[in-house]
From TrEMBL:
The keyword Ribonucleoprotein does not apply. It comes from the Bacteria. This is Tim44 domain-containing protein. Keywords: Membrane, Signal, Transmembrane, Transmembrane helix. InterPro entries: NTF2-like_dom_sf, Tim44-like_dom.
Length: 332
């Protein structure tokens, strides 16, 4: 039995609403989710795989760093050369056909004794000469304009600093040792794809302790909606994203309650320097109680009041002489 059109649409709308409701209840994050922030010149490049995050991390979706585009992500010099399309010149196209036709017609007319082109008298010859002159003038303008055409945009060295990231190497082969709870790769021992604008650096125990501390403190400040504390631990760009999410929570009458954050496993995916800034991307696997509560009653509106595991890549930046700050988060 076929349902009438309107009831069928109503059933479909109800099914979709139920599906979205189930997703909303099942998915509770300490933040809106997604990958956002900046990783310097490596913002839109894939971070190397680690044992903590063996799968490729989600690409950055929101960033104030301009995306150089696919053409700027290669070290192949040939890819940066302007690509000129093979197209016939004016003399090989319609203009050449017209000019050759006029000349051949004029010569045949002269051989037959009918004047240049076979037209009557001097007037016909002048008309054909004017036509030939017009065609020659157009051809000269065409060639002159082609010589003055600018090179293709983006064909220069604009993206020469970028590098093509190879697929994640074998974790056992790239691990150089362990500092504290972190596995640290042998920086500088591998890839010829390292960008010319950056150089790999080493980290010490103080750096790794700072990353672990920031993991818990940033989550705590976010849950407490402490904007002043967040500004001390994250970059201005990250403050803007997190503040926007906190504002949306307040508008919807909810707050994100994150507690009992505990680091389970951590790896350093890469660490590098660009100019006067140091960057480090760490893979974190941690557990936390993460629920969304009603602001008025405190009752849970989404999530489960039990520890759940999360794996993310956190990138930190440190201007010379300053402290590390969180600059990007990527889902893994």
């Amino acid at each position: 039995m076929r349902l009438p059109r309107l009831p069928r649409l109503a059933v479909l709308a109800a099914a979709l609403s139920m599906a979205f409701a189930m997703v909303a209840v099942d998915h509770a994050d300490a933040r809106r989710g997604g990958s956002f922030g900046s990783r310097g010149t490596r913002t839109f490049q894939q971070a190397p795989a680690t044992r903590t995050a063996p799968q490729p991390a989600a690409p950055v979706e929101r960033s104030m760093t301009p995306n150089p585009g696919p053409g700027a992500r290669t070290n192949n010099p040939a890819a940066a050369q302007p690509q000129t399309a093979a197209r016939p010149g004016f003399m090989n196209g319609f203009g050449g056909t017209m000019l050759r036709g006029l000349l051949i017609g004029g010569l045949i007319g002269m051989l037959l004794g009918h004047g240049f082109g076979g037209m009557a008298g001097m007037l016909g010859m002048l008309v054909q000469i004017l036509l030939i002159g017009l065609v020659v003038m157009l051809a000269l303008r065409f060639f002159r304009s082609r010589q003055q055409q600018p090179t293709l945009a983006g064909a220069g060295p604009a993206g020469s600093y970028a590098r093509e990231v190879e697929p994640g190497p074998d974790v056992q082969r790239r691990e150089g040792g362990t500092i504290g709870g972190f596995r640290v790769p042998n920086f500088g021992s591998g890839s010829a794809a390292t960008a010319a604008a950056s150089e790999d650096i080493s980290l010490d125990q103080r750096d790794l302790d700072t990353f672990e501390r920031l993991l818990g403190e940033v989550q705590g400040a976010y849950a407490a909606e402490d904007h002043a504390r967040l500004r001390q631990m994250v970059t201005p760009e990250m403050v803007s994203y997190l503040s926007e999410e906190l504002g949306d929570n307040a508008k919807n009458g909810v707050r994100n309650d994150v507690s009992d954050v505990r680091l389970l496993q951590a790896d350093i995916a890469e660490a590098w320097r660009e100019g006067d800034r140091d960057y480090a991307t760490a893979a974190f696997q941690y557990e936390a109680r993460d629920v969304m509560r009603d602001r008025a009653s405190g009752s849970i509106v989404s999530g489960e009041d039990r520890p759940t595991e999360t794996t993310e890549l956190w990138t930190f930046v440190r201007p010379r002489g300053e402290d590390w700050k969180l600059s990007a988060i990527q889902e893994a």
